[in-house]
Amino acid sequence: MYISQDPIKLAGNNPNFYAYTFDSNSEVDPFGLDIIEEAWKVVTQNINNSKTTTVLGHFPNKNKGEIFESYIEKAIRKKANYFNIGDMWNEVSKVTDPWVLNERFLDVITERGDKILLNVPKNKIRPDSYLEKEIKYLEENGYKWINQWALVKKCK
Question: What percentage of the chain has pLDDT greater than the value 90?
Fold first, then answer.
């Protein structure tokens, strides 16, 4: 037990904010990264093993007057895979860069060779966004553009 609360609170999957682990005699989490595995479980709920299409994209910024379907809405409509850790984003951000989960997700879908659909055209990808980083990662891992809305894995 500690005198101050765990900064990741319930996201660490421990109902006691002042405890290091459930049982410090048998459980060890020296870097507080249990949250990553909990978040990964959330991510995998949105990976449909029978579909080989994944949707990536942005959420519309209503403050800037953007009106378009979010990538999650498009993925659900198309019954496709998508990356989402929901409310855990802030908790994961306290421990590490959430990109580690994005990269793990991208590794799963690139290994399968999923077709990638976007919810915005290529020319609307925001600079320095996670989407831009995801596209770059895909291109480095064998993906090419087939049109302004989609990428596919190159045949070897």
Answer: 55
Span 139-150, pLDDT tens digits: 999 999 999 999
DSSP string, the chain: --SS--TTGGGGS-S-TT-SSS-TTT---TT-THHHHHHHHHHHTT--TT--EEEE-----GGGT-----HHHHHHHHT-B----TTHHHHHHHHS-THHHHHHHHHHHHHHT-EEEESS-GGGPPTTSHHHHHHHHHHHTTEEEEETTEEEEPP-
Residue 58 corresponds to which tokens in the numbers above? 């942005």
Task: Find tokens 């306290």 and name the residue.
Answer: 94
